[in-house]
Specification:
alpha+beta
Length: 98
């Protein structure tokens, strides 16, 4: 079943299973842009829109991330990415200017 034609298959992407997704937010303590992003996401109230979507905030300065794949975001925070738990695929959202 798809979004555009719920009763007939049309070949478009199916509606994602949000229970298999995590919205990752890479931030840094003391980063005013990061704080603004977190506040804006709270205003959207994603939990009401996608109740099965999990949201995880990751402090990019955590010592255990030093050699982690996420360290590439060190100079790019805040970064938002959607991780598919079934495929382990990470899709980064485009960065917007503050």
């Amino acid at each position: 079943m798809c979004r555009c034609h719920p009763f007939t298959p049309c070949g478009c992407d199916p509606v994602p299973d949000w229970s298999l997704m995590i919205l990752l937010i890479f931030v840094r303590k003391g980063c005013c842009i990061c704080d603004a992003l977190k506040n804006n996401l709270k205003k959207i109230n994603l939990e009401n829109i996608y109740p099965d979507l999990k949201i995880q905030e990751i402090d990019i300065d955590r010592y255990d991330l030093y050699k982690d794949e996420y360290k590439k975001y060190d100079n790019e925070v805040p970064v938002i990415a959607l991780k598919n738990l079934s495929s382990n695929q990470l899709n980064e959202f485009p960065r917007v200017s503050p």
